[in-house]
Amino acid sequence: MKINVFDRFVLFLQNLEQQGLSYTLTHQRDEAIMVTVAVPGERWEVEFLSDGSAEVEKFISNGGITGEESLKELLSRYSEQENLIPESRQNNAAASLNLVTN
Length: 102
Description:
The protein has 102 residues and is α+β, with helices and mostly antiparallel strands.
């Protein structure tokens, strides 16, 4: 018996819950649903695609912790992509920017 993508997706979520791992669901690509799992020092992005496959990307920290000054780096590095933020979120992004740069 072949398990379809939806069943695999639900089974994965149930496994996360049984292990006590928190996750968030997002929809970034037309053909996929992403499950983001954050554990200490790591973030895992698991995408379940409509063709039945799954893709996993892992982000693992090197253990270095920086201060608040890094927030300016983040905002300046990606400020050129402002036009990619939906208009409804641009006002919130601008308000957040004021909190960081003040």
